[in-house]
Amino acid sequence: MITAWIIAETTGIVNTVLGFFARGGLFMWPLLACSIVSVTTMILRGLALKRKQVMPPAIEEEIERLAPGESPERLSRLVHYDRSSLARVVRVALQHLRAPRSENVEAVQTRARHEMVRLERGLIVLEVIVGIAPLLGLIGAVSGLVHVFSHLGLSGGTSDTRQIALGIAEALNATVFGLSIAVPTLIGFTYFSRKVEVMSVEMETLVVELINKLYYGRSSREFETAKAPPTAGVSIPTPVA
User: Are 214 and 76 spatial neighbours (Cβ–Cβ below 8 Å)?
Assistant: First the structure.
């Protein structure tokens, strides 16, 4: 009994949804494509932007554990095969450890900007869908209204008011569908954008802390001495009296 009721209810819901979609007109198809792309993108971004995928706890703990001036060998082993964003930025900092601090910071900033682009990948798709879904719904509604009023004109004014109202209601199906796509997509876009921003700030804080520890007690003069070319001995001729 319960199974039959569930099947009947499910069938009724499916028929209602299909009827709603069919009455919406041609523009329901691009809206359906937008909804599929939006859901897929949000799922993929949700998996890619997990905190442990971007900032592994083991690397965070090692950076915090590292004492100022201590050798970063253990940290180097941790990030060597790690594919997270934090590991890639830390690898750049360790690779430029022999360079002056300013050059190291510049290299780290360049890599961090690249990682930001990687983290924001796909968010532009959500932003575009937020903009075009309501517009497609509006175009669908206008197209439906044009169809309704064209039939009204051809009928010579004998159309029933009820039929006109039903036609207008059906024409607005595309608008409803477009807004129902745009609102959740906007929520997802805002959430993921904020998440990327927060993680980038936390990553920057960790890397700055790491660089401060790596360059602890090291002056810029040692780099200048290391970079300065050796002076060749020049013989000064003795003046003849």
Answer: no
Note the pLDDT tens digit of each residue in 46-71. 999 998 999 999 999 999 998 888 88
Tokens read off for 209: 């802390």
Residue 125 near residue 37, CB atoms below 8 Å:
yes
Query: Is residue 90 classed exposed, middle or buried when 0-12, 13-18 and 19+ CB atoms within 10 A define those classes?
Result: buried
Give me the residue label for tokens 């937020």: 130
Residue 164 · residue 45 · CB < 8 Å: no
Q: 74-107, pLDDT tens digit by residue? A: 999 999 888 999 999 999 999 988 889 889 999 9
Cα separation of 24 and 140, whole Å? 7
Torsion of CA 184, 186, 187, 188, to 10 degrees: 90
- CB within 8 A of 168, min separation 6: which ones? 144, 145, 148
* Cβ(132)–Cβ(38) below 8 Å: no
Asked if 66 and 212 touch (Cβ cutoff 8 Å), the reply is no
CA angle 43, 49, 52 (to 5 degrees): 125
Q: Where are the domains of the chain?
A: 26-216
Q: What angle do CA 41, 46, 207 make, to 5 degrees?
A: 120
Distance from C-alpha of 59 to C-alpha of 94, rounded to nearest angstrom: 13
